[in-house]
């Protein structure tokens, strides 16, 4: 699966921002037709997003579109406008049932069949940002093989729950972890919540590092400066790579001596630490 360390949202109403985003060499850019677009501007945003997909050079960047809620007339019109341009992925907002994904799956399948494109070539990403979405996580994660990632939406979730957003993130500790855990259980990527204070890059970096600790592989972002920081934060550091190499080297020596568990730098190492080290090297493209 392609890395999505940073997924940058760009309002579908702004050709200037879409054009800028296309040239940033990011993992994923997501043209937004949902929350960043006012009801009166949906039609214009659709047309502009389609134009951006048709005309802009995104280079290696994944071309993704966030459509409106599955099953709605808005979402139907969104797909009718953008599917002919073969986006790489579709993000579905407020997913609260497997049926929402199956609805989208069918629309994508129809487009792929009618254009003669690779079946399953357009990926789906599900935003988990409602109380029901969290409660039904496992049903949603297993809905379709087209699903590649679960993205967590803290703002919408807390609006739905009726709680409050705080800088501590304590109100989302459970659902944010549950999304990472469920994604891992189903072999999907987990993409962390948006950090709305886009001028506070230190706060953003801290939240991205915390997400990596929880098992997230990337972060949804709203500003180019955040995107750069996210791509760094979700890339293994030199220290992490060096440590992983030492673990695997020590493992080979221990195995040669017939030992499954051994000590390295004052800490016990066995199966899980070896698996973690292998994961780091794989993410760094070394293994
Ligand atoms: N994508 C592409 N370019 C962006 C961008 C984005 N998401 N956010 C900002 N930029 C551009 C600006 O256009 C500006 O470009 P310029 O220097 O060529 O003029 C540059 O980056 C610096 O922007 P800045 O002045 O710091 O921010 P702003 O005040 O223009 O915009 C926001 C702030 C939050 C309104 C804007 O970042 C935004 O719209 N983000 C996306 C919101 C969104 O899609 N939300 C829905 C999903 S949660
Ligand atoms: Mg939203």
> DSSP strand (E) fraction?
15-25%
The CATH homologous superfamily name of the largest domain equals: Phosphoenolpyruvate-binding domains
The neighbouring-strand order within the major sheet is 1-2-3-4-5-6-7-8
Please write the CATH class name of the largest domain: Alpha Beta
Architecture (CATH level 2) name of the largest domain = Alpha-Beta Barrel
Give the helix proportion (percent range): 40-55%
Number of individual domains: 2
Small-molecule binders here are: coenzyme A, magnesium ion
Q: Could you give the count of β-strands?
A: 10
Instruction: Compute the separation of the termini in Å.
Output: 15 Å
Structural class: alpha/beta
Largest sheet: 8 strands, parallel, barrel
Question: How is this structure best described in words?
Answer:
It contains twelve helices and ten strands. The strands form two sheets. The chain has an eight-stranded parallel beta barrel with strand order 1-2-3-4-5-6-7-8, surrounded by six helices. Strands 9-10 form a two-stranded antiparallel ribbon. The chain has helices at residues 15-22, 42-55, 73-82, 98-115, 131-135, 137-141, 154-161, 173-185, 201-214, 224-233, 238-256, 271-283, and strands at 6-11, 28-32, 62-66, 89-92, 123-128, 147-152, 189-192, 218-221, 262-264, 267-269. It has two domains: 6-233, TIM Barrel (Alpha-Beta Barrel), CATH 3.20.20; 238-283, no CATH class. Helix 2 (42-55) packs parallel to helix 3. It has 287 residues and is α/β, with parallel strands linked by helices. The structure holds coenzyme A (COA) and magnesium ion (MG). Residues 35, 93, 153, 156 line the site of magnesium ion.
């Amino acid at each position: 699966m392609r890395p999505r360390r940073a997924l940058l949202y760009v309002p579908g109403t702004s050709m200037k921002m879409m054009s800028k985003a296309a040239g940033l060499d990011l993992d994923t850019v997501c043209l937004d037709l949902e929350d960043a677009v006012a009801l009166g501007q949906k039609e214009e945003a659709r047309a502009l997003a389609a134009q951006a997909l048709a005309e802009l050079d995104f280079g290696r960047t994944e071309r993704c579109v966030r459509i409106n809620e599955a099953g709605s007339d808005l979402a139907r019109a969104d797909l009718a406008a953008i599917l002919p341009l073969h986006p790489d992925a579709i993000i579905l907002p407020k997913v609260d049932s497997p049926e929402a994904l199956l609805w989208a799956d069918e629309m994508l399948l129809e487009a792929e069949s009618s254009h003669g494109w690779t079946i399953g070539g357009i990926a789906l990403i599900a935003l988990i940002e409602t109380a029901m979405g969290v409660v039904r996580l496992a049903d949603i994660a297993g809905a379709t093989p087209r699903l590649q990632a679960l993205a967590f939406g803290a703002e919408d979730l807390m609006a739905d729950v009726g709680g409050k957003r705080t800088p501590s993130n304590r109100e989302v500790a459970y659902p944010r972890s549950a999304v990472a855990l469920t994604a891992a259980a189903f072999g999907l990527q987990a993409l962390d919540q948006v950090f709305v204070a886009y001028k506070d890059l230190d706060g953003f970096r801290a939240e991205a590092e915390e997400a990596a600790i929880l098992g997230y592989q990337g972060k949804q972002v709203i500003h180019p400066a955040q995107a750069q920081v996210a791509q760094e934060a979700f890339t293994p550091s030199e220290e992490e790579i060096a440590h992983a190499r030492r673990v695997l080297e020590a493992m080979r020596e221990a195995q040669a001596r017939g030992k499954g568990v051994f000590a390295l730098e004052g800490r016990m190492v066995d199966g899980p630490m070896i698996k973690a080290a292998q994961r780091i090297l794989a993410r760094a493209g070394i293994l």
